[in-house]
Here is the input.
Amino acid sequence: MIKSFENNNSLGALSALLSPHLKSKEVLDELDRFPSQAIVGLGQGGGRIATELSRFGFPTFLLNSSKSDMEEHKRLISEDRRIVTKSKLYPELEGTDKNAQLGYDIATENKELYKMVALTPEIQNAEFVWATVSLGGGTGNGALKVALAYLSAVRKKRALPDGNIPLGIICSLPSSDEKGSSFRKNALAGVAVIQQLMNERKIGNVLIIDNEKIKNYYAKDPLKTYNGTEIDAKSYSNMVVASILAEISSLPLLDGRSVFDKTELLATLSTPGWLSISKNNKVSEIDNLEHTIHDLFNDSEVLAEYELSNIAAGAIAVMYPSGKNISPKIADDVYQYTSNLLNTKVNLSISTNSKVENLTFYGLTVNHTPSVRITQLKEELTEWIKLEEEQERAKQEASSSLGLDEFADFFSSERKNHKGRGEISLSDLNELDNTFELGEVSFKENDSKNEKSMEEELDDLDI
Ligand SMILES: Nc1nc2c(ncn2[C@@H]2O[C@H](COP(=O)(O)OP(=O)(O)OP(=O)(O)O)[C@@H](O)[C@H]2O)c(=O)[nH]1
Ligand SMILES: [Mg+2]
Here is the structure.
């Protein structure tokens, strides 16, 4: 079960970001109904996001090809849940240095570990499971396809009545000051994988953290912890995502004029699509409700920005400070304005709370199209490819001006044979048969690569 938001020593600096309503008696009394969630963190960024979420008491597993990346989380995540994915081909590598294709190969090599995590009781029994990943990198991004195939198969057993699967992804997108094409290629390839999983209804919501948006916002308003240390923008973004997720997860606990119940929240989170979360806690009086709702969805998105069109599902929550007068018409009005604006089915929560000082609004939309940052990333990628080609040309020119062309093939590229790194096998030698006409000599072929497939359901999956 979730730990109390009031007496939780693991929260650390995250505590400062949480909405005060999480520490209210209304919420604390109902904590046993808090939607149970489990987390699988892939790669370094994914591991950091996951660890931030683990502070609430959510069971959390980390998988990474770099052991040292995960060491930073040893105080919060036990060793048996920090799982190292090793590569036989590249035993010395820790991470992929932003090579998502290599990340995919390593994940495939380690698929038994991903199956093992998917089959843990924590993942099987949670009401919702999140996989977390940074799409700019190689290890986590490359692992997405493998991890999600198994997670989805397992979570399908807990599908909602409409068939949607309570499994989502939280992913970060690189910011504009991360240099080079590889971050962007990785990110766009990752988005393509995710979109396909959505189209196949293998996952529900995907929550994007736009590192560009967070960086710009954070530059204006950096956070200092109680002891005065500054927090870097990426750690801050992980805290923001953790706090907003806890806040929206608490909505079903709020009692009031209109209740967004747990089934509705899980149905929203399990709808395949890109989840946008908006928040406004600066309203002291409502003078123009329609305007406030418009601003909430258009200008108060917390983690990434979206075009407000093509929406699959929506929800709005309004929390009043206790003692504030609530107009009897409010539920009808909020419902009407929001469903007109979003043009889709809308869930509604209207409640009062003893700890909030201002009115607090939350808005959720599940969008068919991803964040507008994707279009920018595509443009940035085109520019980087052009720039890198120019750099390559300049490099060639510089080297040809040395006049050493006759040595160009001295270290021939044919020597670079990846397969050559492992031990030589009988089948490698058999390839030489034709060259030396040893055809009549027969060796018994025993190809260890053709292992018999295991019987478990997961083994039959085609990734
Ligand atoms: N939001 C967020 N983004 C992060 C964080 N750490 C790294 N990133 C982003 O993640 C990308 C780099 O990916 P990593 O997570 O370092 O990569 P990886 O999965 O470990 O894979 P390798 O490339 O093999 O190391 C960059 O775009 C970073 O901006 C984090 O804590 N939060
Ligand atoms: Mg790494």
